[in-house]
Amino acid sequence: MAAKSNTRSESGKVRRVIVVGGGLAGLTTVIKLCEAGVPVDVFSLVPVKRSHSVCAQGGINASVNTKGEGDSPRVHLEETVYGGDFLANQAPVKGMADAAPGIVYMLDRMGVPFNRTAEGLLDFRRFGGTLFHRTAFAGATTGQQLLYALDEQVRRFETADVEDERGIVIPGEKMVRKFEFWDFLSVVQDDAGVARGIVAQDLKSMEIKAFPGDAVCLATGGPGIVFGRSTNSVINTGTAASSVYQQGACYANGECIQVHPTAIPGADKLRLISESARGEGGRVWVPKDPKEQRRGREVPEADRDYFLEAKYPGYGNLVPRDIASRELFLKCFHEGRGVFNAKTGANENEVYLDLTHLPKEALHKKLAGILEIYEKFVGEDPYENPMRVFPAVHYSMGGLWVDFERSADGGLVMGSPRNQATSISGLYAAGECEYQYHGANRLGANSLLSCIYGGMVTGPAMASYRKGMDKSSYDLSSSVFEKAEKRELAKYNAILKMDGKENPFKLHDEMAQMMLVDVTIERHNDKLDTVLAKIDEIDMRSRKVGVPDTSGRANQSAQFTRHLFNMIVLARVIAQGARNRDESRGAHFKPAFKDRNDEKFLRTTLAFHSDGGNAPNAVRFARDFDYALNGKTVNITDAVDISLVQPRARKYEQAGAASANAQGAAKKDGDKAAAPAATAT
Ligand SMILES: Cc1cc2nc3c(=O)[nH]c(=O)nc-3n(C[C@H](O)[C@H](O)[C@H](O)COP(=O)(O)OP(=O)(O)OC[C@H]3O[C@@H](n4cnc5c(N)ncnc54)[C@H](O)[C@@H]3O)c2cc1C
């Protein structure tokens, strides 16, 4: 039997839900919840406007087809599943591709300053894995513009009053309450394991507190920091996803980690030079002579090897990222063809990304954001000199497992409580922290889209779930929350007391370096075995850390130590998943198993935490499992939904060869038939 009122619990309290994360996925979820009349508490480690989404550069995909190229949501769906090497469930991808044009128009109406054509239409650029102009962009700071637009909408709800079913204002209750600088620690679970709220820590006062919520959504972003320096922000440790995984949530396809081909070094992080640089005509090359010591701009055309254009004449510099990164790796690490760096006096594992042949004015209009970054951090003018770039860990296709309900037309049943539900009843996930939309390799500019679409799906799903609850979390005994709060307080106090010899920051460096070297572009089983043994060792050593700071306010060391514990757990899920998958698929590449093996591995990796005595933090992999939702049992298997586009081999090198455009510029209509995804059945 469903709870009597949607607004108030039996005990008269306003029934709120919780969203953890204020990036694009979190804010969209909040907006959709508010539109459905559901009051929300939002938690974020940082001010929501500093969420990692703010760093996104190149754009957001939508097959609006303003350039009359014949693009459509169907082609977008096909290219996304083809780019992801068929590991993505196709119903959610269809839902996303169908919704994309409407999402971009909605963002435009919200005031996002998208670049426009001379006629005033939205402009679209090319991105990897497609021959169409499908990416809407706001210069090279698209993420910032999108985040600020959504933030404005959420602020509106921060001032809106909660009304009851009769439309009467409930005094003192606003639709949105924001908790910034709070670290999510765990979900509060009742005796049946249902998520009933969260425990979080105020990062200024270090107070630990439990908050009730009728449902909880994690929108906490990716886990890039497991690999140390990456293109991600330093807060992207994956701690929240790891924490709920340890509480019983399934983690899916953890081994699918994307390495972006073009980044630059930095002491704190590796800064991305967006794919949009290639979308606007940037060319990747190395000198033909490995001993070449002239500066990039002094090397004549005849002495340059445009290796991506040569091997992939159709897609050229815009092959999907997994392929581009492997080709760069091959050139630098296996063939020793990395370019000469005058500052170090040696050949480095870098290639040139060259924009110097393009008109400065156009570059400034479309790419100024990233070109400024290059100039500031490398100290060279990218308008005059080819940029030196190398691959960096960028994105996780894997994440918390989430469900979906397929509609009759092959998309999603909007409003189904199954959509975006994790395997913990009452816990939802949206954005990069979940696994649903990108299979084994994400196409560029599809993430911002999946975050916003994911949020648009999650809000109504949580509202339905809340409607179907038999008892509000606000009517539970306070002991449920006190118990969870005490458990987290005890864990935190134990961290503060740790006075061992290991330094948590150094331990993280050690683990991250190993993950970076052996669990990214090329994976070898013997090395993965060594990594797994080493993770076990690091896990043991992490129990002997000495926390450098024991102060009672703004204690970053204790917080980092907690995140480290959670990162070690995720590292094992990623490495073990990679060890098990003896094939190559998308970003997961094993030279010893070069081909995709659909018979054995066209399956979602479903990982569960298992904490045995001799094997702490072990991973248990399942072929199927059951989870409960609004009193019903749902059975899940690892089969991938391939009902819309039949799997076939990925052959980007064969596409569009007849009409190669060496500078990766637009293809004309006739070329489309050559794109493998566009010819999909
Ligand atoms: C440099 C760069 C450029 C990119 N450019 C593009 C692009 O052009 N197009 C594209 O499609 N994709 C791009 N991406 C990918 C895309 O930006 C991200 O995948 C996406 O923004 C993730 O959004 P999100 O809402 O899932 O999470 P985030 O934006 O990362 O937000 C996570 C939120 O969760 C909060 N949080 C995390 N942990 C906790 C915790 N423990 N407690 C409380 N709160 C917590 C954070 O404070 C934050 O508010 C880019 C990525 C990078 C690194």
What does this structure look like?
This protein is α+β, with helices and mostly antiparallel strands. It has three domains: 17-59 and 74-122 and 140-256 and 405-477, FAD/NAD(P)-binding domain; 261-394, Alpha-Beta Complex (Flavocytochrome C3, Chain A, domain 1), CATH 3.90.700.10; 485-607, Methane Monooxygenase Hydroxylase, Chain G, domain 1. It is 31% helix and 18% strand. The protein contains 15 helices and 27 strands. The strands form eight sheets. Strands 15-14-21-20-16-17 form a six-stranded antiparallel sheet. Helix 1 (24-35) runs parallel beside helix 10 (447-467), helix 12 (504-518) packs antiparallel against helix 13 and helix 12 packs parallel to helix 14 (556-580). It starts with 16 loop residues before the first strand and ends in a 44-residue tail after the last strand. Bound molecules: flavin-adenine dinucleotide. Residues 20-26, 43-46, 48, 51-53, 55-60, 142-143, 182-184, 219-222, 231-232, 235-236, 239-240, 272, 274, 394-395, 431-433, 445-448, 451 line the site of flavin-adenine dinucleotide (FAD). Flavin-adenine dinucleotide (FAD) is lined by residues 20-26, 43-46, 48, 51-53, 55-60, 142-143, 182-184, 219-222, 231-232, 235-236, 239-240, 272, 274, 394-395, 431-433, 445-448, 451.
